[in-house]
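Notes from the pairing session

We agreed to fold both candidates in a single pass and log them together. This is the raw record for the first candidate, unedited. Please don't reformat it; downstream parsing expects exactly this layout.

Candidate A
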Amino acid sequence: MAFGTQDDTDEVMNEINMTPLVDVMLVLLIIFIITIPVMKHAVNIELPRATNQPQDAKPQTIRLTVDAEGKYFWNDTAVDDAQLRQLLADAASKKPQSPLHIRGDRAVRYERVAQAMAAAQRAGMTQIGFITERE
């Protein structure tokens, strides 16, 4: 009965015991094998078909130009005052509404540009912008 001596059987183990790890992995594998077929059984339904094509393209911008003599040009086509009102009414009724860009010559009287803006407002145009050049 020697309390201070060490036997050869009490040595420190330098390896990891893999048996419990393998047991846990086998249990997990069995659980997954049992649950995967259950997850694949689904209700058969007929899904609706849809396309991913855009429905409406962006509306084209309308360019209204007022030259130095006060004449109107609708997308580079000369129009008089009556035609301008009709074109503005047609453009305002479209959905989505095209934006109106007004380009006024530097030498034109402001009155002609103001008349075009008033006609656009009366027609119901909501997107009106002005085109200018940098100095």
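Candidate B (folded immediately after A)
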Amino acid sequence: MISRRTLIAATASLVATPALAQRKAPVAETTINPVKLMEAGPLPEKALGSADAKVTIIEYASFTCGHCATFHNTTLPKLKEKYISTGKVRFIFREFPFDPVAAAVAMLSRCAPEDKYFDVSAVFFQEQASWARAQDVVGALRTLSLQLGFTQESFRACLTNQTLLDGVNALRDKASNDFKVDSTPTFFINGAMYKGAMPIEDFDAILAPLL
């Protein structure tokens, strides 16, 4: 039987229990001058959110990277809702292909209409398993691209655009040489570098003192 004394003691211990500690923000790998990060690159920027936002998040990602797909499929929608759509954060996406297939998908995303870039790239991340693991990767990409509004001709023209391929490769090389990016996803948040597909809670902790 639970006595009144036992109940009071148990209640007191609950009241005395300290609150859970606030989540600690990940430690930045290094910091790059934000002005240098924002210098014009070999390709036009792909960005979401207000240009006047207090915080800028730059992501370097490879379309064949599973961790990048996890971020885009699960965390980016929450970032959009909490920070990007509210004008607090500007999000910039930069391609960092690790292989020819990732470069091809980067090219296809950039060949989409300007206002459809993030819609198209989102589908490629959502459907990553269906094309990245296909025996006929080109055929799988063609099928998905046709569903996204490409024609046979525009699909072929995009993937044979040497100027665009050179730009994608130059974007990767600039990140590697100038900013020491060597894995994906890599994020720069107001210049501070963080690696890995961080959950929204980590972004919350990092962004809190910046906003």
